[in-house]
Amino acid sequence: MPVFGNLCKTLQWILRTIWSQNRKARGRGLLESSTRLKPHEAQNYRKKALWVSWFSIIVTLALAVAAFTVSVMRYSASAFGFAFDAILDVLSSAIVLWRYSNAAAVHSAYREYIACVILGVIFLLSSICIVVKAIHDLSTKLLPEVDDFLFSVSILSGILCSILAVLKFMLGKVLTSRALITDGFNSLVGGVMGFSILLSAEVFKHNAAVWYLDGSIGVLIGLTIFAYGVKLLIDMVPRARQTRHYEMFE
């Protein structure tokens, strides 16, 4: 019985120690990943996040140029929406680069929350532009044109953005990074928009009466981005205020 009692006391001490460490980590403004990852593991994932972000910037910038070209040449609201989302993806990846540029701040909650607040603002501004453009095209009954260039851009955009989204979601989960997950959500939206360009173009090709599908998808995606941006700001602004005394904004 004394052995059992000592064992219980030991277990209680271990549990209290773990709880105390987690509470101190949160008190210092650290993310949950600080208690789960070893220092070399955290730095390894940080470098992977930087590489994925750089790759995302290069790819989405090229896709943005192509999509803007399609939007102008073929009067596609979905292509314009994707191009805007691609630019948003470039900006969000750049913010993630800033977020993980400091090796010592890999677990910084404050840096994380500030990055998310900036992403939320960008989401709101971009969504307004997408929705306004789509509504304008719907009100003027702007009809899209279909060709091989539009088809190629749609397929390439959908595939590449979907791959980037998966990579960002995986890294965001390991590093418990809302900024990375948000960047992944943006890439996912880009993938959906890429395939939606193809869908609306093919539908219009076979049934000209459904000319409004392209603009409607643009409105829907714009509203989705707006809602996500609002949710992000509601969640992150209070947290940024709570943790600002732990770390100065760099």
UniProtKB/TrEMBL annotation:
Bilayer topology annotation: Multi-pass membrane protein
Keywords in alphabetical order: Cytoplasmic vesicle, Endosome, Membrane, Synapse, Transmembrane, Transmembrane helix, Zinc
Statement: the UniProt record of this protein carries the keyword Cell membrane: no
UniProt GO cellular component terms: early endosome membrane; late endosome membrane; synaptic vesicle membrane
A single GO molecular function term of this UniProt record: zinc ion binding
Record-stated family: Belongs to the TMEM163 family.
Gene3D superfamilies linked to this entry: Cation efflux protein transmembrane domain
Alphabetical list of InterPro entries matching this protein: Cation_efflux_TMD_sf (IPR027469), Tmem163 (IPR026765)
Protein name as it appears in the record: Transmembrane protein 163
Function comment: Zinc ion transporter that mediates zinc efflux and plays a crucial role in intracellular zinc homeostasis. Binds the divalent cations Zn(2+), Ni(2+), and to a minor extent Cu(2+). Is a functional modulator of P2X purinoceptors, including P2RX1, P2RX3, P2RX4 and P2RX7. Plays a role in central nervous system development and is required for myelination, and survival and proliferation of oligodendrocytes.
Superkingdom of this protein's organism: Eukaryota
Localization: Cytoplasmic vesicle, Secretory vesicle, Synaptic vesicle membrane; Early endosome membrane; Late endosome membrane
Catalysed conversion reaction: Zn(2+)(in) = Zn(2+)(out)
Membrane-crossing segments per the record: 49-73, 79-101, 113-136, 148-167, 179-199, 211-234
Keyword Protein biosynthesis: no
